[in-house]
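Weekly sync, protein design subgroup
Attendees: M.S., D.O., the rotation student, P.L. (late)

Item 1: inverse folding check
M.S. brought a backbone from last month's batch and wanted to see whether the design step gives back something sensible before we order anything. D.O. pointed out we never logged the input encoding, so this time it goes straight into the notes. Structure tokens as presented (459 positions):
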């Protein structure tokens, strides 16, 4: 059967449903095609479930150290992983049900289940049906990368997706990958009670960050008991009875780590290899990401790409911002561009890392005259009150314009506080405006003026 629509959205991740709803609300007959669960990575096996697990792990840690706060929790504290998973599932299912009810109640919007594949420009096939529209929007996301290491296909392994089904406590979780996903799982499961080892190929964890950030994050994890191995090369996997052995080389020689379970967290790849994009004339780059311009148009007329699959961002908030850009430009007469947004993201270990704008390495590479300041979290009253003084604040400022270039805040409530600096960047406020503002005491934010008082030339 052939179906004609005015707009088709492929994928019900973060930007897809919002865009489909806006298009339908604008009077366009719209189809939203999804082959799996509504909500994409964020709702099903990303942000929402993992941060729900992080919350349970934090409670376990607080109870474990309750005596330091004068609270006797007793020696019987234990983590019920089946209950932890059940709580996570309930939060996820509530999100999915809400999304289903919202989309199902929208006139002009048809929700189609199945795998979409281009058969011609502006034409798709889903099972035995064909769909056609002058405007098609791709929001298909990404999935975990599984490198072709020796032995990898002979051993059992987990990814961020299959980890969502774990309802038991691994005796020893070995995580290959020392970036955002891997580190969140590392601290989480260590706090649940597993032995945890992290193996990272780069010389340090989260290598895209400045060295002092990487070092501080490593110290936080090691304080919790996570074992870290960096500079790992020539990885190979093998069974060791019911366990998994990971062998690798380091500058110090050959090493092996044997664990009960193996988690791969070594990157993501776009879900673009089964869409028939060549039939639509949609170009891909060397890594399989859809090539888009500054307004998210692909090389094919009438086709846009949003979310992880376009390579312009790998976060829920970048995907949603993609939706905002496309909707504003198509429906509101706007002229928004991807290049206008300020890079921002967070790492949700505890305490969290909040990052905006440029790193110190990027500022140095730009060659501009800049100022830099750091402030340890031990100076923050809120951190001392809570007994959580790990981390620091760091900010970089243009020496000429006095505008913020970037910041890294690692510490209690850092993911929220850093967005005050993000807003100042977006408003192009010079940093003295922050210094001259009266802040509430006692908060983390009140130390921002003190941070800026420490500015000195970046040499």
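Designed sequence read out in the meeting:
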């Amino acid at each position: 059967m052939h179906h004609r629509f005015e707009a088709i959205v492929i994928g019900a991740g973060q930007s897809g449903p919002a865009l489909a709803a806006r298009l339908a609300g604008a009077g366009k007959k719209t189809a939203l095609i999804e082959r799996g669960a509504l909500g994409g990575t964020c709702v099903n096996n990303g942000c929402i479930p993992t941060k729900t697990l992080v919350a349970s792990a934090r409670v376990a840690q607080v109870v474990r150290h309750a005596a330091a706060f004068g609270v006797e929790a007793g020696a019987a504290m234990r983590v019920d992983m089946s209950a932890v998973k059940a709580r996570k599932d309930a939060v996820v299912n509530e999100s999915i049900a809400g999304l289903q009810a919202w989309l199902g109640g929208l006139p002009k919007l048809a929700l189609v289940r199945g795998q979409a594949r281009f058969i011609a420009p502006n034409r798709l096939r889903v099972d035995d049906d064909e769909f056609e529209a002058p405007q098609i929007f791709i929001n298909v996301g990404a999935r975990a990368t599984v490198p072709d290491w020796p032995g990898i296909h002979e051993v059992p392994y987990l990814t961020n997706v299959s980890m969502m089904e774990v309802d038991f406590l691994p005796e020893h979780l070995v995580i290959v990958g020392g970036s955002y996903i891997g580190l969140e799982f590392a601290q989480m499961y260590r706090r649940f009670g597993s032995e945890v080892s992290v193996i990272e190929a780069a010389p340090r964890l989260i290598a895209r960050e400045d060295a002092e950030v990487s070092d501080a994050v490593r110290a936080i994890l090691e304080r919790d008991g996570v074992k870290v191995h960096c500079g790992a090369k020539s990885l190979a996997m093998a069974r060791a009875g019911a366990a998994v052995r990971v062998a690798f080389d380091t500058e110090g020689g050959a090493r092996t780590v044997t664990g009960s379970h193996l988690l791969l967290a070594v990157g993501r790849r776009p879900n673009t290899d089964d869409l028939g994009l060549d039939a639509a004339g949609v170009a891909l780059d060397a890594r399989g990401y859809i090539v888009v311009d500054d307004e998210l148009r692909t090389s094919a007329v009438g086709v846009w790409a949003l979310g992880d699959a376009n390579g312009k961002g790998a976060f829920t908030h970048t995907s949603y911002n993609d939706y905002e850009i496309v909707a504003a430009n198509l429906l509101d007469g706007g002229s928004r561009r991807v290049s206008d947004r300020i890079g921002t993201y967070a790492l949700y270990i505890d305490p969290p890392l909040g990052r905006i704008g440029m790193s110190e390495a990027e500022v140095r590479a730009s060659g501009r005259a800049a100022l830099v300041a750091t402030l340890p979290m031990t100076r923050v009253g809120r951190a001392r009150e809570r007994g959580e003084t790990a981390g620091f604040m760091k900010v970089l400022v243009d020496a000429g314009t006095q505008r913020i270039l970037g910041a890294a805040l690692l510490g209690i409530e850092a993911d929220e506080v850093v967005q005050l600096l993000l807003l100042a960047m977006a408003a192009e406020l010079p940093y003295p405006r922050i210094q001259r503002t009266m802040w509430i005491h006692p908060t983390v934010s009140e130390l921002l003026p003190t941070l800026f008082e420490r500015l000195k030339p970046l040499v």
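Discussion: DSSP finds 13 helices and 24 strands in the chain. The chain has three domains: 2-143+269-340, 152-266, 344-457.
Action: P.L. to compare against the previous round before Friday.
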